[in-house]
Amino acid sequence: MSNDFIKTAVIGHPISHSKSPLIHRYWLEKHGLSGSYNAIDVPVDNLKQGVADIIKDGFSGFNVTIPHKISIMDICDEIDDLATAIGAVNTVTIKNGKLYGTNTDGFGFVENIKRSAADFDFKEGKAVVLGAGGAANAVIYALLQEGVPEIFIANRTKEKAQKLTAFNPEKIKAIDWALRNDVLEHANLIINTTSLGMAGHPPLDISLRAAPAHVLVTDIIYAPLITDLLKQAKISKLRTVTGIGMLLHQARPGFKLWNGVLPEVTEELEQLVLT
Ligand code: ATR
Fold it and tell me: Where along the chain do its domains lie?
């Protein structure tokens, strides 16, 4: 146990809804560590000053959320290969006043599936990714790292899906949004990365009828926990993984970087975050 008081935070705008303080404070207490984790509201045009203040205040690191995940890259002194490939930073470590950026979203996505569906094999077949926004980048990069043989991306704005094929043009195909139901045939994994189905957003209009019986269906949305997509999958007796685990697991590497302990996701923590 260390006696050093470790100051950490999440920056974003808006930030009051963030679950990160709950998660990190749970782990700090669980491990008997002396430290703090605050939500700091940093408006779009105040990123440079906001980060300068954090350095001055002696923080060890911070998480980065909307709208700063891309713009923080210009302020970091070093960005690792992973975050560079994904094109976004969500975790920053501060050492001697210098900022080191990485991205743990892909880790969170993969860990969630591995822990929730232990016998699932990424290599077994194609993945269908719905959406090509910020969250899709990390998911698609992680899928390639896990050896997924083929990835189909269906997005309303097809050009954005096409752009993501650059990760590996031989393995990734951009699909018209209108064809999203048809590409589910032979899918091993179906992932919703769009905002459709999230509380306050329109529903995701999709039919899982063509999906094979062994497919795993997952949503990165966790509010509601059981989205309409997951409900439909359950009715069709397909395997499902909810999005809450991605949020919890993506937080683990940052905690380790700052506090020296890789924390675990527990049932108790999951319930705490969901209530
Ligand atoms: P994030 O960074 O969280 O991924 P985002 O970049 O705004 O958020 O992406 C939201 C995703 O939801 C995008 O894929 C978006 O499609 P477009 O690229 O065409 O904007 C998708 N999305 C949002 N509303 C949609 C709708 N009504 N129909 C289809 N797709 C939608």
Answer: 6-103+246-274, 106-242
